[in-house]
Amino acid sequence: MNRLEARTLLTSMTKSESLLRHMRTVELVMEAYAQKLHQDAERWAIAGLLHDADYEAFPDKHPAIIVEKLKGFDENEIAHAISAHYTHWNVPYETLLDKALIACDEITGFIVACCQVRPGGISSLETKSVIKKLKDNGFAAKVDRNEVHKGAELFGVELQEHIGFIIETLKRNKEELGI
After folding, report:
1. Type and span of the H or E element at 27
2. Is 143 left (phi over 0), alpha (psi -120 to 50) or beta?
3. Secondary structure element (H or E) that encloses residue 103, with its range
């Protein structure tokens, strides 16, 4: 599967602009990490792009629908990473891709939420501000803080460095993302 095919699959199931933006941000972060770690950037980006593709259309079956579709394309590694992108699903983390996706999903969404309450958006966002907001359970209350911490731990990255890497990645795409 290439990225064009992945985008076609995504837009066949997802219409929400905010959800599409979330998946695009995770796509960008996954691609950047793949490049940093000398992994397959296209595959990592596709995993980020499609990780929530079925959430809007099939919330009660998420992520089973997208996982099955990916298996139909013989994209088993990406399918497994998507099936494991939430620790409460108790799917084992077998590859670096699996660990990267769990590490990047929640925190990337949280960082975008932080951008939305700052006059300068991501341009003025600093790691320490994100860490402070993580401690405020009333802010972006749906973000599972345990997932943020567990994801970084599984991926083997220090949370502050991880947040800084994500901020810098998103800054390079701030116009496209509107953050």
Report:
1. helix 17-36
2. beta
3. helix 96-116
Q: What is the C-alpha end-to-end distance of the chain, expressed in Å?
A: 29
Q: What DSSP designation does 84 have?
A: T
Alpha-carbon 66 to chain mean position? 15
- The residue behind tokens 């088993």 is 76
CA-wise closest residue to 128 among 179, 171, 174, 163: 163
Can you give the pTM of this predicted structure? 0.96
What are the mean pLDDT values of the chain's consecutive 10-residue runs (179 residues total)? 96 96 98 98 98 97 97 97 92 96 97 95 96 96 95 97 98 96
The residues, any chain, with a CB within 8 Å of residue 37's CB and separated by 6 or more, are 96
